[in-house]
Amino acid sequence: MEHLTKIKEQAKTEIEACEDNASLQQLRILYLGKKGPIQEVMKTMKDLPKEERPAFGAQVNEVKNEISQLLEERKTILEEKEMLETMEQERIDITLSGYRPHMGNMHPLMIVQQELEDIFIGLGYQVAEGPEVECDLYNFERANIPKDHPARDMQDTFFINAEELLRTHTTAVQMRQLEKYHEEGKELIKVICPGKVYRRDDDDATHSHQFMQCEGLVVGKDIQLSDLKGTLSFMAKKMFGDKRIIRFRPSYFQFTEPSVEVDVSCHICGGKGCHVCKGTGWIEILGAGMIHPNVLEMAGFDSTKVSGFAFGMGIERVAMLKYGIDDIRSFYTNDLRFLKMFNRFE
Asked: Would you say residue 132 lies in a domain?
């Protein structure tokens, strides 16, 4: 019994001094393993008289159980200690600012498109879209550009097949809208049609084979050229500043009559003349005019009862004038240094 007591006391001292689970496991093997002191004591039981063996065995098992319990208790303490240390090391300071993911920004062309949409939606217009792969009927013929018309050479484009092509202007969307509104029996049309268009242009600082347009269409009773000028004057002031004024110059488009080129007073020099406006004080921004009677008639409208106006502008051109960009290719090169400049315009 004295030997068993010494084993128990020694085990208790070593277990309480143990500081990690690996060392504790070594102590478990040392005292409770097949070659441990408990097993060595058990081997001496054969030398005892039979009547003393049960009491001796009970005492050995009691010591063994006590040591096992000491090991489990120490294991629990060490696991809790390890968990607290881990929590302290991995503790998160919730008062610190979080890591913000890198956020992109809107493309300058989308910024301008949305500004135009907001302006015209505020005037009661609806935004209309259409297919980029368009048929010849809506892209040319309904726009009063029949086959073999010389104007088609100015809008040479990419053909998918004999009858389908990549649209050269969003006028095709206007033609679809005219047909749709006539079929629905509506007398007033007010839509803008933004989107990508394609032409076989040489890529240089001011031209691209792909660009974006925003065209507008109004049809109703007693629509006058003065209504067109008032609408575009309002748009120019919203886009380029309250001091901007516009002027009309006679022009020619197949789907409008009369047709006009629209200039806005230079926002750099205020109309005095500078390198941007080439000394004229004016900058051309878009084309417009009253809808040609043939266009109305082909859509099913009676041109003697209704009239309308249409206009179209290049979104790239507006963006270049608005933000002082001198090369249209900058919009399409995916240069992040260029695109990040427009965070401030959101």
From this structure: yes
pTM value? 0.67
Highest mean pLDDT among 28-37, 46-55, 197-206, 228-237: 228-237
Q: Does residue 136 share a domain with residue 207? A: yes
Cα distance between residue 146 and residue 200, in whole Å:
20
- Of 89, 121, 149, which residue constitutes the final position of a domain? 89
- Strand locations in 163-237, DSSP E? 164-166, 189-198, 210-220
Is residue 58 within 8 Å of 3, Cβ to Cβ? no
Segment among 42-46, 120-124, 126-130, 138-142 with least mean pLDDT: 42-46
Exposure string (b/e) for 112-132, b if CB count within 10 Å is 16 or more?
bbebbbebbeeeebeebebee
Pair (213, 246) in one structural domain: yes
What are the structure tokens assigned to 35, written together?
């070659």
1 token code pair:
């019994």
Beta carbons of 75 and 68 less than 8 angstroms apart: no
Q: Which of 116, 125, 122 is nearest to 177 (CA)?
A: 125
Domain that holds residue 78: 2-89
Q: Are 83 and 112 members of one domain?
A: no
**Number of separate domains in the chain:** 2
Handedness of CA 235, 237, 241, 247 (dihedral sign): positive
Task: Give the CATH number of the domain where residue 117 resides.
Answer: 3.30.930.10
pLDDT in tens, 263-286: 999 877 877 888 878 888 998 999
Distance CA 271, CA 13 (A): 97
